[in-house]
């Protein structure tokens, strides 16, 4: 047996200079070529042609790093093999950035997979895709798109540009990274510069634009109806009901028979009222309160019994499933249910008999719950309060049901205090509202303020949601768990908490713990630190980004943000489909029935979570549009604001009075050459060393307002 041939000095020099990204890729290729084999770092080093000690040390580091990324699996004693997830393609949802690069989120890995701009294939934003891992860089996974499994959208909104021979549609959504080619015989009468909806027809050549046809001409950009409809289409949301659904809703039998009443508890004679926003029409919930004896009170939380009118599998139910939620844009509500149901039949309007699903509790004088009951009722609301009406009573004014409102408010404050003690999070952000003229144009901006009347309703809705979930979810000895719909909120990401801590330190604030189980107290303490400070809203938004998203599921893990072990959504079935499911399940279990199709229930949960996100994104887009529209006639005017974001391309500023945000491009700051220091999170002038950081007060001039991109351009003055 001969001696192993030594590597030449030329080879050794090459291995020393090898880039990290190439070395990681070479290491992964060894394991992909031999998916069943096990190697240690010396064997891997030999296979990638590395012999010097320094690079072999790096090989060992990268092997452990690839284990953390779940690309390799550590067997024992420094031995590694290909992770099971790497032996085939992975499936996930692609999320494009404005630059054209993307990330794929997959349930199979903890980390998102980065996809460079030239490796996204035929995927479009939101598609479900197959992705092949190609390596890692800077501790991040990288991959390329193999195929598109399912399109997230077939229709897209954009501005059409028509020339003599052809037409292109430029998407309004900046995350849709391609323009669409439209034959001139498929324009549907669209005129140059109009906003249209196109349907994707074909895309087989990456060097060419996808082929599409115009399916709807929305109209001229800037028109309120056009823009609101465009936002709904952009996020895959409907803006009108099919005729057959409207007809079915009109034909629903709304009579309440004596036979139906006999199956329910009758609460029509008890003091009952609703408290809702000024402009609300869909009254989901009502409260009743009566004194049973000197130390015992009965509180009824009565919720519209949508499930009585919307039967599983009916045409109305199928439409409600598809929508899953009502959508709240700046100037309108796009309801989950046809208006005849949402605003009339199911709405708990005063002086009308209404069918409900109720959560009824007996309280002692100190606000402790002694007994509970859940089931079908009939009620008759005596009074419709707005939040302002109820707040006036709480603050000392007179009004109907004053004693009841004050007693309920006292208990609500006690329940809220206990939740905070138990570790519930309190992120009370600013909600932007607009005054609109008859054409939908914004004439003013104001901010919704949460007061005690809002918290009163919130606490009793939380109580009902929590206790309903406990009622269904707690397993009695010897019993099996019942399928149910839970609203869960996972622990925050510890890495994001560490990043937040570092960010806060640069601002002079302290996050006292980065342990997820202790983070709620640390974050609430942080909110107290930043209260009434210029950077308060910025810090809140950064803190919120550390949080997981609350979702619907059949697998309960509790709700971290509320500090509840069991939680569901029971109280808004007019506007949320999961609440309808919960009502049906509670009624079925009350009658000793079983629900066996857990897979179908889980699919409905995932769909509802997805539609909830789309609705929230659409709401934010409509707010941003109105903010930009509001500033159109203020170009050239000066305003005070606070620095709310820093990037390598610009400095974001939030205006003090309106909370409207715009950006100052760094290249427009011409008194010096400014650079973004990522470590210090500052923008620094290279010559005069002027520093800008979060929360700094600045004066700006409005330089431009782009309605198409929903962006404001500021200049520093």
TrEMBL record:
<dbReference type="InterPro" id="IPR001900">
    <property type="entry name" value="RNase_II/R"/>
</dbReference>
<dbReference type="Pfam" id="PF08206">
    <property type="entry name" value="OB_RNB"/>
</dbReference>
<comment type="function">
    <text>3'-5' exoribonuclease that releases 5'-nucleoside monophosphates and is involved in maturation of structured RNAs.</text>
</comment>
<keyword id="KW-0269">Exonuclease</keyword>
<dbReference type="InterPro" id="IPR022966">
    <property type="entry name" value="RNase_II/R_CS"/>
</dbReference>
<dbReference type="GO" id="GO:0003723">
    <property type="term" value="F:RNA binding"/>
</dbReference>
<dbReference type="InterPro" id="IPR003029">
    <property type="entry name" value="S1_domain"/>
</dbReference>
<dbReference type="Pfam" id="PF00575">
    <property type="entry name" value="S1"/>
</dbReference>
<keyword id="KW-0694">RNA-binding</keyword>
<dbReference type="GO" id="GO:0008859">
    <property type="term" value="F:exoribonuclease II activity"/>
</dbReference>
<keyword id="KW-0378">Hydrolase</keyword>
<dbReference type="InterPro" id="IPR004476">
    <property type="entry name" value="RNase_II/RNase_R"/>
</dbReference>
<dbReference type="GO" id="GO:0006402">
    <property type="term" value="P:mRNA catabolic process"/>
</dbReference>
<dbReference type="InterPro" id="IPR040476">
    <property type="entry name" value="CSD2"/>
</dbReference>
<dbReference type="InterPro" id="IPR012340">
    <property type="entry name" value="NA-bd_OB-fold"/>
</dbReference>
<keyword id="KW-0540">Nuclease</keyword>
<dbReference type="InterPro" id="IPR011805">
    <property type="entry name" value="RNase_R"/>
</dbReference>
<dbReference type="Pfam" id="PF17876">
    <property type="entry name" value="CSD2"/>
</dbReference>
<comment type="similarity">
    <text>Belongs to the RNR ribonuclease family. RNase R subfamily.</text>
</comment>
<keyword id="KW-0963">Cytoplasm</keyword>
<dbReference type="InterPro" id="IPR013223">
    <property type="entry name" value="RNase_B_OB_dom"/>
</dbReference>
<dbReference type="Pfam" id="PF00773">
    <property type="entry name" value="RNB"/>
</dbReference>
<feature type="domain" description="S1 motif">
    <location>
        <begin position="636"/>
        <end position="717"/>
    </location>
</feature>
<dbReference type="GO" id="GO:0005829">
    <property type="term" value="C:cytosol"/>
</dbReference>
<protein>
    <recommendedName>
        <fullName>Ribonuclease R</fullName>
        <ecNumber>3.1.13.1</ecNumber>
    </recommendedName>
</protein>
<dbReference type="InterPro" id="IPR050180">
    <property type="entry name" value="RNR_Ribonuclease"/>
</dbReference>
